[in-house]
Amino acid sequence: MSTGELRGSRLTKIYPGGVTALDDVSFVAHGGQVLTLLGPSGCGKTTLLRIVAGLEQPTTGTLELDGRRLDDVPPGRREVGFVFQNYALYPHLTVAENMGLALRVRGVPAADRSRRVREVAEMLGIAGMLGRRPAELSGGQQQRVALGRALARRPRLYLLDEPLSNLDAALREDMRAELKQLFRRLEATVLYVTHDQAEAMSLSDEVAVLRSGRIVQRAPPLDLYARPADLFVASFVGSPRINVWHGRADGRQLECRGVRVPLPERLGGREALAVGIRPEHVEVSDAEIPGAWPAELLVDEPIGPRSLLTLRVGGEEARALAEPREWPGRLWARWPADRLHWFDGATGGRL
Amino acid sequence: MNRLPRWLSRLAGQALFGAAVLALVAWSLAPAVWQALTALKPDAQITHMPLVYLPRPATWEHVARLWQRKPFGTYLLNSAWVSAWATLLCVAVAALAAARVARLSARSREGLLLGLLVISLFPPILLLFPLYEGARALGWINHSLALILPYAALNLPLALWVLESAFRQLPAALDEAGRVDGLSPLQRVALIHVPVALPAVATTALLVFIFCWNEFMLAVTFMTRDDRKTVTAGIASVSGASVYEIPWGQLAAAVLIATLPLLVLVLLFQRRIVAGLTRGAVKG
Lengths: 351, 284
Hints:
The structure holds 2 protein chains of 2 kinds.
Chain A: E1 6-14, E2 20-29, E3 34-38, H1 45-53, E4 60-65, E5 68-69, E6 80-83, H2 95-105, H3 110-124, H4 139-152, E7 157-161, H5 169-186, E8 189-194, H6 197-203, E9 206-211, E10 214-219, H7 221-226, H8 231-236, E11 243-249, E12 253-255, E13 260-262, E14 272-277, E15 283-285, E16 293-302, E17 307-313, E18 316-322, E19 330-334, E20 341-344
Chain B: H1 6-40, H2 43-46, H3 61-69, H4 72-101, H5 106-121, H6 125-138, H7 145-169, H8 172-180, H9 185-196, H10 198-214, H11 217-222, H12 231-236, H13 248-278
Helix pairs in contact in B: 1-13, 3-13, 4-7, 4-10, 5-7, 7-10, 8-9, 10-13
């Protein structure tokens, strides 16, 4: 279980031209765990993954895998398996050859090779396709082959770069669950890159949220959801997105556009603040309830188990997940105090 | 004016297209056909006025005489040997270079390719004397290396141009997958670039081979011994019984025979190229 521990220290990547892709990033990926790098495009997550794979060199900083320095180790000797976003299968080789090439160039005897390839193929449910070429496979099958290619080498560390982004929605959900199960079974150390917060939440033991080349917050998925470190994480994680109102505080309440939100005592001395609440925590009622604001229903989107309501409260808008039924145009919305997230209005940091 | 019915206008279009194709084919094939007819005519009919179109009767005399008087089979073998090695060398070197050049930044890549183009525009005759001196100093006169190396070098710009553009189409991730799989740069070119871009590689090889096969100037200069000559130099040495007689029949036969291997090769490769293209192998 202790194998596959990756330690990155003070990694920086500055591209020629001056673009900073990574800005002093340090992290540890613990053995047997899935660490997801989550962030919008251009946040540096893929750069970080490629640096770990050895496909790019960091400008400064070091990497260690199980205590061994990786800085001068070429990609092929790092004992990492990489799954590319577009799979990058060798189009001229069969599925078996695709999965076995790394073993072949390493001099693994043919008999061992084909046994290992077959094992992996059976695990992934592609044993019947070993003789086919990538062009003859569906997207989902190609995805499995790409995974199998990484698996067959038995690496210490798996690197996955948005592996599900090319699949359609239904298949993506199936594969997500399957991947999770697979990682568990293999007790694999995984560094997983995605911009899809749902994927990150469902797959990961821990999620590191990146923004502008820095890790903003690192936490288990549910902590990330419950206690986002700043406004950026709060609005990036969770779907539908969190409601955020900015306003000025007078010591007792926060004055937003036409709404007043009572301030907790500990924030008495502050002025510029932002308050957030997740749509699923907003309480909606068609009769008046204590502490609720009168609201106007703008849009009602039934999305199955819940309905997503867009409300106007004073001069602000808020979205709420509510019971799926007919809602009147005028109703009452309440933000329970214990569900509120408070942020510094200027820095966005959690308070 | 009345418009033609649709089926008629379509028919007319097809007929026009067919006629154009036919004209093009006739235009391209006519010299070769004339060459073939000449090779099969008895001497008297070749220069006969009015023109005799079809040989009557056809004769294999010229072909037979060619073989009796000249080591024509040896010429062909020499050509094949020299062209094959030069092609192999040229494509191998060009593939290695192209794989790297294709990943250069646009600026340095375009600069490099433009430079190559400029260099390749110099007439090869400029190289003849330095090359001759070099070959003599090395004792390579009448040695196949004296042709193989310059042939490979002279065709390098063309091969690099074609292969570079083919390799640039390959997704970068394919090369990176090879790196992660532990392939050396040489293995990546041999096991990934070349097989994936096989149609382009085959086309390049074919073009280079044809240029080598047809090369005359260096061949006739460096190969002085009859048993070393390539087929182009060999044809030039076909002469008549007297200085004044030009053996048209034998020359025509020689040219025809020298062209046949290329024809076969093109047909073989063509199938290959088309097969490669229709497989739809390269997909992101």
